[in-house]
Design a protein that fits this description.
The chain is mostly helical and 190 residues long. The chain contains 9 helices and no strands. Helix 4 packs across helix 5. The mean pLDDT is 80.
Length: 190
């Protein structure tokens, strides 16, 4: 049965794909001049810059949201085993050997095993542990830390999560204040 591929809709993802494909050519054609710049925003979904980022982004994003794999912290060997599992059990197309090596190096370097708990990069401060356990139960912390909300908006978001998403209510008001203070201090609207 024939199915038409819907393409890459978000403009930034399309631009990233074109930029990546151009790196595969020894003589890339020049890009047309654009009257208007692409909207500003994180490139490659916010993945850290490094060799292999594009291979990871375009291979993994074919089927997964970034949150589904950036929350893992595996050794290089663990990432290698996970790729084998995805190929064998989920029908993933096997990356070319050179791309696989780039991906494994990148994933091992940026999403490798952690010696000590680093709280997923959350800055130190009162409430860090509580935010880590409350938010990472359902979300990647990257998603949480990019919100940039005022304390009132964080408070409304917690209410919404309880009412609309089934989150357990934080009935301890001191704990809720600690979480709200931490979020608004470190990830507030400025």
């Amino acid at each position: 049965m024939w199915r038409q591929w819907p393409g890459v809709k978000p403009a930034q993802e399309r631009a990233d794909l074109i930029a990546y494909l151009r790196t595969l050519s020894d003589h890339p054609l020049p890009l047309p001049q654009r009257a208007k710049e692409a909207p500003a925003g994180p490139r490659y979904g916010g993945l850290p810059a490094g060799e292999g980022r594009e291979a990871v982004y375009f291979t993994c994003r074919a089927c997964h949201s970034l949150d589904q794999f950036t929350g893992h912290h595996l050794s290089r060997e663990g990432w290698d085993e996970l790729l084998d599992e995805m190929i064998a059990m989920n029908g993933m197309a096997a990356p070319e050997p050179w791309a696989r090596e780039l991906m494994l190096d990148y994933l091992g370097a940026y999403f490798g095993e952690r010696e000590d708990r680093d709280w997923a990069g959350l800055p130190p401060g009162p409430g860090r542990e509580e935010v880590y356990y409350s938010c990472s139960a359902c979300h990647s912390l990257m998603m949480v830390t990019q919100q940039g909300l005022s304390r009132d908006r964080w408070d409304e978001t917690l209410d919404w999560m309880v009412e609309e998403q089934g989150m357990d209510e934080i009935s301890d008001l001191a704990l809720r204040d600690l979480i709200l203070d931490y979020l608004s201090t470190h990830f507030g609207s400025g």
